[in-house]
Amino acid sequence: MGTLNQIRLVSRRLPVHHGIFSNTRCFSTNNVLYARITGTRTFKIYRYNPDTPSIKPHVKEYQVDMSKTGQMFLDILIYIKGYLDPTLTFRRSCREGICGSCGMNMNGVNGLACITSVKDKPVNTIYPLPHMYVVKDLITDFDQFYQNYIKIKPYLIRNNLDPNMKNSIPQSIRDRKKLDMLYECILCGCCTHSCPAYWWNGDRYLGPAALLHAYRWVIDSRDEGTQERLDELRDKFSVYRCHSILNCAVCCPKNLNPAKAISELRLLLSPLKHKEKPDMQ
């Protein structure tokens, strides 16, 4: 047990490389900077409990000694829940930017709490993702988000099943590369809930995450439902509510660009561009 605690302590003190992944925990031998925050910091956290309707939603302050915890926002939340306030409620799972459970708004920007580092300033703020029904504290209701995701049919559509392809469908390396920077989306909701167009028309505009996945399936060389998918998007709201504000690209924790995928969908919906034939039939 002592060894495990030592490993955890060392992992929280790994150097941070301030490059393209400046907000993530990573290790590099080049330009390594030790940016560990020390001293006491104030964290203002949104609180709401539906079981106590007499207490309105409010912001509660917590004083945290940074020498006793890690440098990520999720480390702070776990410390507060474990040592200061066990009633604090939030989602979390992998702690390494893979599952997308801990999406929230930190210092005014949506992101994953597990890979977003605390700012070296007196006060940091933590709120739930904006424009969502709050279930409790930092937990939000993803029903509408997942309903929009279901609408884009996130699976391969095959019209003619070849009995010789029971286990796999061949795909060239070139066709496979078209899916890069698309399939990595983890559906954390950070991009969708930073989008003003989604705030205004969340029931009709599918949002950046769903449309990124829509393009991922449209462009897949193995998919035979391209026309069906595009026809589903031919209305004034599904795609065309995007105003290229680019909040989605700025806050995406996987460094994806949903706005670019949406612009590609618009081209495919127009006579200007058509899906290429697959290299392997």
Quick overview:
Helices cover 27% and strands 14% of the residues. The protein folds into 2 domains: 37-140, Ubiquitin-like (UB roll) (Roll); 143-269, Fumarate Reductase Iron-sulfur Protein, Chain B, domain 2. It has 281 residues and is of the alpha+beta class.
- How many DSSP H or I helices? 9
CATH-scheme architecture of the largest domain = Orthogonal Bundle
Computed CA radius of gyration, to the nearest angstrom: 22 Å
By CATH's scheme, which homologous superfamily of the largest domain applies? Alpha-helical ferredoxin
Under CATH, the topology of the largest domain can be stated as: Fumarate Reductase Iron-sulfur Protein, Chain B, domain 2
Q: What is the number of beta strands? A: 9
Percent of residues in helices comes to 25-40%
Q: For the residues shown, what is the average pLDDT?
A: 87
Biggest sheet strand line-up? 4-3-7-5-6
Distance between the termini: 56 Å
**Overall geometry:** elongated
**Helices and strands: which structural class?**
alpha+beta
Order of helices and strands: HEEEEHEEEEEHHHHHHH
Q: How is the main sheet built?
A: 5 strands, mixed
Number of separate domains:
2
GO molecular function: 2 iron, 2 sulfur cluster binding; 3 iron, 4 sulfur cluster binding; 4 iron, 4 sulfur cluster binding; electron transfer activity; metal ion binding; succinate dehydrogenase (quinone) activity
Enzyme class: oxidoreductase
Subcellular location: Mitochondrion inner membrane
Domain 4Fe-4S ferredoxin-type: 175-205
